[in-house]
């Protein structure tokens, strides 16, 4: 072997060894739902890929882990999830399968804007929103604020929906807060790649800002929007973009609404001349048909968890655009 060839071989071995060392130091990360997975994937871009535990198509409120998903938790150095308000079953699995992992509940993260669940089948705040389409609301509860308890006498058969609404990923300002938190936590676990994590988070924030601008433009072009949603998952999105649903067919995606609730929502649709009633791709479409029967409302589909979107770093800004386009598209 010539000196040149030997030198090339040695250089290749050194490069491979260095690359392997960097890869070995990157934490193994598990996440709960696709929007959180996307934010973590954006921060880890170029270094590694997180594992998704709650697959699209399943309800995060009530989900059974597959063996591969349980293994993802077992090998995780860090777990990022919304928290028990969204996935009451997951905390026990994390404690059992990932007892040594860093665990971050994003809903409790400093700087996260949180909102309380809305009461009843129809929403009282619908008639006095404080922002035009495309604007944001400046006031919201922080994670350390006290939350009032609410009684839901008309829906005894549904899960407890008092306190904080966990669908906080649909406020893109929360997505930006979480990007920075994820970067800081991973930088602490993996200091050698800290600059990459934080640079990726900064780029991700810019991408979310662009998605927010597109969402505002889409909603503004649609004009006044009267709509009802399948379940009350969009409060954060509405609050951020200055729109408001007239009501929700169900408070939860984990149980069916009572006949009385359906009747109340149908009356609301008729009385307000609601243009759109949104179903979700994985749930009972017949309920939407029942609510729109005898009215001029159209049925359309909207998805708070991005069932049809491609997983990965681009998923989160695509989700923000998708929700806005779905709402605006039905109204136009």
UniProtKB/TrEMBL annotation:
Entries under InterPro entries matching the protein: Bact_metal-bind_prot9, ZnuA-like
Signal sequence range: 1-24
Swiss-Prot/TrEMBL GO biological process terms: zinc ion transport
A GO molecular-function annotation: metal ion binding
Keyword vocabulary terms for this entry: Ion transport, Signal, Transport, Zinc, Zinc transport
Basic and acidic residues composition-biased segments: 125-150, 158-170
Coiled coil: none
Location of region: Disordered: 125-170
Highest taxon in the source lineage: Bacteria
UniProt xrefs under PANTHER family: HIGH-AFFINITY ZINC UPTAKE SYSTEM PROTEIN ZNUA, HIGH-AFFINITY ZINC UPTAKE SYSTEM PROTEIN ZNUA-RELATED
Family the entry assigns: Belongs to the bacterial solute-binding protein 9 family.
This protein's name: High-affinity zinc uptake system protein ZnuA
Lineage of the organism: Bacteria, Pseudomonadati, Pseudomonadota, Alphaproteobacteria, Rhodobacterales
């Amino acid at each position: 072997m010539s000196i040149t060839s030997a030198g090339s071989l040695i250089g290749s071995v050194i490069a491979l060894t260095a690359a392997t060392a960097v890869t070995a130091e990157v934490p193994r990360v598990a996440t709960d739902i696709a929007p959180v997975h996307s934010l973590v994937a954006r921060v880890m871009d170029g270094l590694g890929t997180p594992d998704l535990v709650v697959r699209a198509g399943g309800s995060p409120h009530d989900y059974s882990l597959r063996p591969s998903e349980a293994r993802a938790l077992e090998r995780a150095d860090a777990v990022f999830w919304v928290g028990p308000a969204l996935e009451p079953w997951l905390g026990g699995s994390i404690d059992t399968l990932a007892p040594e992992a860093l665990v971050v509940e994003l809903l409790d993260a400093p700087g996260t804007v949180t909102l309380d669940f809305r009461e009843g089948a129809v929403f009282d705040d619908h008639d006095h929103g404080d922002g035009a389409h495309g604007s944001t609301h400046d006031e919201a509860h922080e994670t350390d604020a006290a939350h009032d308890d609410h009684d839901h006498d008309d829906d005894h058969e549904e899960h407890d929906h008092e306190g904080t609404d966990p669908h906080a990923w649909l406020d893109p300002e929360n997505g930006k807060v979480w990007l920075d938190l994820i970067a800081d936590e991973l930088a602490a676990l993996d200091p050698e790649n800290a600059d990459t994590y934080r640079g990726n988070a900064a780029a991700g924030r810019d991408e979310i800002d662009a998605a927010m601008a597109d969402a505002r433009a889409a909603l503004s072009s649609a004009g006044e929007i009267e709509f009802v949603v399948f379940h009350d998952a969009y409060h954060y999105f509405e609050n951020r973009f200055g729109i408001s649903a007239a009501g929700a067919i169900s408070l939860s995606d984990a149980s069916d609404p009572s006949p009385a609730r359906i009747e109340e929502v149908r009356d609301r649709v008729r009385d307000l001349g609601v243009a759109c009633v949104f179903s979700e791709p994985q749930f009972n479409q017949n309920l939407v048909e029942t609510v729109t029967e005898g009215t001029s409302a159209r049925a359309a589909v909207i998805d708070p968890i991005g069932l049809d979107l491609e997983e990965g770093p681009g998923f989160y800004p695509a989700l923000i655009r998708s929700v806005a386009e779905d709402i605006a598209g039905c109204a136009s």
